[in-house]
């Protein structure tokens, strides 16, 4: 963890030493006419020098430089030099791609500070909880999936705020849990929407994916989880995040299914208690409106299944009868 004085020193070096940055690959929606072109090796040198100035271990500084410069080089400017000085995970794909270097499939997950507002709720409870899968192919090619389980990462909304441009539908909500197109209320008092946006467009699926990452990284690992993680940009205590890394060797099957069984007793103790606490927290979140009730989308199947158990399953006949 770094303190505020350290952060100020790092960002002072950034402002004084490097104010503009451009990689070879960039978003087609952004103008680059006024950008300065800086070689990647120079960006890495700058990052290492900044971190070394605050007594960071050399090997740690080098890994951070590779992670952040890789993000910018791949066009993820919200996760590159923009994150120098924070305890940000960087792009999840950077870790997954390390397995590809050895001919393996790599998976990488992390939980984060609570930024995502679950479907039908109004309070940030889960993180952006990114996940990544990297897979080798021939001729040094590879497939890399690297995504947040929110519609976008927080950094993209921060960039829109700096440029004073509106954000699209489905990115964030205000303090009342209502969809918002202005970046600042989302950042200051609202939160990010799950991948998929609103309930009508499948946002509950992103909510479910965020829960999955939270289970692997927070509940299973014994780290902080959900709303128990410190707030973003708060430095009064250690973040105590959890990460999950998986490397899979290539195995050939005739058909394609995948089954994985994980014994929670092989990891941090108290899994069942922490899991129940997270589920109860999500079940009891304050809803956006009274009409939505306190039963959140992820758990609507609880009451649906209970109803079927007591009343049976209705089937529709061809003539429209039951």
For the biggest sheet, the summary is: 4 strands, antiparallel
Question: What's the average pLDDT?
Answer: 84
Number of helices: 9
Low-pLDDT ranges: 18-29
Helix and strand succession?
HHHHEEEHEEHEHEHH
Strand content: 5-15%
The gyration radius over C-alpha positions equals 22 Å
Distance between the first and last residues' Cα = 62 Å
What spatial form do the alpha-carbon principal axes imply? globular
Q: Label the structural class.
A: alpha+beta
List the strand order in the largest sheet: 3-2-1-7
Write up this protein.
- This protein has 322 residues and is an alpha+beta fold.
- 34% of the residues lie in helices and 9% in strands.
- It has 9 helices and 7 strands, in the order ααααβββαββαβαβαα.
- It has a 4-stranded antiparallel beta sheet. A 3-stranded antiparallel beta sheet has the order 5-4-6.
- Strand 2 (131-136) and strand 3 (142-147) form a beta hairpin.
- The radius of gyration is 22 Å and the shape is globular.
- The protein starts with a helix and ends in an 11-residue tail after the last helix.
Give the SSE layout.
Elements (H helix, E strand, L loop, with lengths): L3 H14 L22 H13 L5 H16 L18 H9 L4 E6 L20 E6 L5 E6 L6 H10 L8 E2 L5 E2 L2 H6 L2 E2 L10 H17 L23 E6 L22 H13 L16 H12 L11
Antiparallel strand pairs: 1-2, 1-7, 2-3, 4-5, 4-6
Helix pairs in contact: 2-3
